[in-house]
Amino acid sequence: MNIIATQALTKTYGGGVTALADLSVEVEPGVIGLVGANGAGKSTFIKIMLGLIAPTSGTVRVFGLDPVTETDKVRARVGYMPENDCLPPDMSASEFVTHLARMSGLPATAARERASEALRHVGLYEERYRQIGGYSTGMKQRVKLAQALVHDPDLLLLDEPTNGLDPAGRDAMLGLIQRIGTDFGISVVVCSHLLGEVERICDSLIAIQAGRLLRADRISSMTEASDVLAVEVSEGTEELAARLTEMGFPVSRDGRMLLVPLDSDAAYDRILRAVADLELNLHRLDQRRHRVAELFTKKETADV
Ligand SMILES: Nc1ncnc2c1ncn2[C@@H]1O[C@H](COP(=O)(O)OP(=O)(O)OP(=O)(O)O)[C@@H](O)[C@H]1O
After folding, report:
1. Residues 55, 48: Cα–Cα separation, whole Å
2. pLDDT value for 297
3. Residue 198, exposed/middle/buried by CB under 10 A (0-12, 13-18, 19+)?
4. Residues in CB range of 135: below 8 A, 6 or more apart
5. Are 19 and 44 in contact (CB under 8 A)?
6. How do the domains of the chain map onto residue ranges?
7. Which residues of the chain have pLDDT under 50?
8. ipTM higher than the 0.90 cut
9. Residue 77 pLDDT
10. What does the pLDDT read at residue 302?
11. Coiled coil where (predicted)?
């Protein structure tokens, strides 16, 4: 079952900036990365899913619901962690998250309990009565995550959750997000311009560029074997390269590896024979896997 489905979704802001253009995508449950360079349209997509802004044309459904006309029903099932800092410095995390739980419709006692639970999940239980103004950036990000979780949503939309964090803080936040997906069975859309980090924790990716869909697929499909063979020998790389070139293979080098396009099954056997004829010691012979970063053209690539 799809959790999100869009059809020709388009958003043009006043002033004529088209942030999303004709985006059609279907998203299955899991931990999903929404990736693209700055300005690609990720935040716009998230805001449309939440019913915060309306599409210019096209449709969007979240759990089969229309965020434009069924906003409350969508928000009851979706938690949102915004990109920007939006926390009151003079409240404790406990007060703040309880307040948002109350706003979601929970009675006072249940709201307090749920807030404590959410703060425990994000690792802030001990610190929950301290004022947010004294928190580190990492702790503030965790408060934002806790408030997104507090009403027990089925889907989390996280906008740049690792923003401003140092490498250790990033790893901790990514681990937390992954656990939310696996341990609680909540689907998560992680929006980021950092392809490398999203790739580590997601089952699937939606890649957008300048508001258009580049590809939406499972990461395993994106990194399937390519039709390029990587050949590495302990010694005699030059010799082998020359022999393969003589045999008509368009060989290229990548460090100690020779890369040879595989145009037929016979090519595999011919390369093996060449290695044997030259009496070289074969170190490695396998099909290269595609890299997710290949999705993006070099010029407009997300940071990897
Ligand atoms: N309220 C707005 N009015 C006009 N243009 C906007 C508005 N919000 C976003 N845009 C423009 O729409 C495009 C997409 O912006 P959006 O914030 O959705 O991208 P993003 O991928 O989330 O980028 P970032 O990672 O920088 O937040 C950008 O060109 C941006 O300048």
Report:
1. 7
2. 55
3. buried
4. 93, 127, 143
5. yes
6. 4-222, 225-293
7. 298-304
8. yes
9. 96
10. 44
11. none
Q: What is residue 299's predicted lDDT score, i.e. its pLDDT? A: 42
Give CA torsion, residues 15, 17, 18, 20, to 10 deg.
Answer: -110
The Å distance, Cα 179 to ligand 1 centre, comes to 29
Rounded-to-integer distance, Cα 60 and Cα 74, Å: 11
Q: Considering only the top CATH level, what class is 225-293?
A: alpha beta
Q: Using the atom order of ligand 1, give the atom closest to the CA of residue 40.
A: 21
Structure tokens at 162: 């690792």
pLDDT in tens, 20-46: 999 999 999 999 999 998 889 999 999
Q: Which of 9, 13, 20 to mutate to test the pocket of ligand 1 (most atoms within 8 A of CB)?
A: 13
Query: Which of helix, strand or coil describes residue 162?
Result: coil
What is the four-CA torsion angle of 304, 50, 169, 221, rounded to 10 degrees?
-40
Q: Rg of the chain over CA atoms, in angstroms?
A: 24
Fold of 4-222: Rossmann fold (3.40.50)
Which tens digits make up the pLDDT trace of 244-299?
Answer: 999 999 999 988 899 998 877 788 889 989 999 999 999 888 888 777 777 775 44
Strand order in the sheet with 4-12: 18-27, 4-12, 57-62
b (16+ CB within 10 A) / e for 283-297: eebeebeeebeebbe
Q: What order do you get walking across the sheet with 282-289 strand by strand?
A: 252-254, 257-261, 225-233, 282-289
Q: What residue type is 271 in one-letter code? A: I
* Proportion of the chain above pLDDT 90, given as a percent: 70
Alpha helices (H) in 50-132, listed in sequence order: 71-77, 93-103, 108-121
